[in-house]
Predict the structure.
Amino acid sequence: AVGINTPAERAYADAALRRRLLETLMDAGVRIEDPRTTYIEPGVEIGSGTLIHPFCVIRAGVRIGRGCEVGPFAHLREGTILADGAEIGDFVETKKASLGRHSKAKHLAYLGDVTIGRDVNIGAGTIVANYDGKAKHHTLVKDGAFVGSGTVLVAPVTVGRGATTGAGAVVTRGNHVPDGAVVV
């Protein structure tokens, strides 16, 4: 037991609890490359065989499947769900984002209020523009889609099964990409 009377004492107590949480996850088969630089809150579920790279922040309410890869420098916020084998790379932020099996967003992306199917590639610099200044809207990216680097998906929008967006594409609100289509 420790007393917490100052902000510094609280920080030390928080660090001890986080260390215990990381040890529990590692004992369950989660590989955390650098526990000193990894911040995982209580209320996170992570499947065995998942690799967490350094400098990740994973907030309460996140569920990560088996055999996933996260980071480095990823920020997973509440409501994020990664199915088995999904990959979130460096400088990717997610919020209320669901990635299907073996889908990946490897570099510099913001994925908010989005459902991403299986075997989808989200290119570097992709942004889901989910907020219109008044409300947040949902985006759907179906199985097998390829979202090119620098794409902006202005919600609400759907990218169809097996569809492709070219690098730098802007898919505007309500202009859905049909299955198998290519838009640039």
